[in-house]
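Following the same procedure, backbone shapes were mapped to integers, yielding the entry below.
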Amino acid sequence: MKVNVQSVNFNADSDLIEFIEKRISSLEKYYDRIVGADVFLKVEQTSGKENKLVEIKMNVPGNEIVIKKQSKTFEEATDQAVEA
């Protein structure tokens, strides 16, 4: 599966990108027809602590699944999105 990670208005470090790719790839054990995933990382300009937004677009034959989760860290938001 091809996982594309794009960070909007900041540079994501390699550890974060590796973590996201590993978590997204683990979904293949539940559904083996996933073609790829596009992951967008954004920092919302809010006063709250939960300002990290992760948006995942899963490409499967015939459909596109979109999951958005917001949390204190990108790792936590990624975990919540993968669980969903």
